[in-house]
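tool_call: predict_structure(chain=1)
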Amino acid sequence: MTDRNAAFDKAMFDIYRRAKDEANYNATIFLKMLTDTDGLTTAKTLINAPKESDGYTTLFMKGRLDLTVEAVVTENAKWSSLFTDHEIAKAKDRLLKFEYRPKNWSAF
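tool_result:
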């Protein structure tokens, strides 16, 4: 595993912990995905799904789309090399669909 992939794994576990601590949301399915595979595989699975996950919907209802995989991927350019342009655009489009404007907008 590369240093970048290990750092991305940490970022994914961080949003799991933050969702639990800050939004009172225990994303058990997301945690299982992370532990069964890794952060990158989990993120790509969720981003490439035909529709948003139940966890995404829950975080939307709690006003915390900043804690989604889509936000992490689109808001930090250091992850861009891990994803295709299409995956980044898909993540951004999903956020925009729910009226969340990714930070660092000019970077995309």
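agent: The chain has one domain: 3-103. Proceeding to next step.
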